[in-house]
Amino acid sequence: MSAKVDVPNESDSSKSLDIVKLVVAGVLAIGSAVAFYWFADQWPTWARVLMVLAGVGIGAAVGLSSGPGILFRKFLRDAQIEVRKVVWPTRQETWQTTLIVAVAVLIIGIMIWVIDVILSWAVRLMMG
């Protein structure tokens, strides 16, 4: 099951630009997290949280504009299409399956408890 991904021929300059974009995205995300702790004494928490959210958001936007980011967005779109194709169980089927799993877990739990009690009794009997 191999899927072929069409990747256009990239020149060296566009590959270099993609690398620069990904590095900038990483620096923005990591830098905002570092700045969160760096400015702990000077800025209120809400401002530092906004700074981290902005840094990660801008970093994500820059990263998604790179070649690998564009391929990732295409992958997400294709995955969303596949999720729509799935036949999901009805509410009743979901509850029935959940109940069956819960009962099975309860039965197995009781069986393990009984085995534990028997083994504990046997060990106490042998130990005196």
Would you mind describing this structure in some detail?
The mean pLDDT is 92. This protein is an all-alpha fold and 128 residues long. The chain is extended. It has helices spanning 12-38, 45-64, 67-85, 91-127. The N and C termini lie far apart (61 Å). The chain contains four helices and no strands. It has two domains: 12-85; 89-128.
Quick overview of this protein structure:
The protein is built from four helices and no strands. It has helices spanning 12-38, 45-64, 67-85, 91-127. Helix 1 packs antiparallel against helix 2.
Topology as a string of helices (H) and strands (E):
HHHH
Radius of gyration: 27 Å
Share in β-strands = under 5%
- Point out poorly predicted stretches: none
- When the domains are counted, the total is 2
- From the N-terminal CA to the C-terminal CA, the straight-line distance is 61 Å
Main pleated sheet:
none
Observed structural traits:
128 residues; mainly alpha; 2 domains; extended
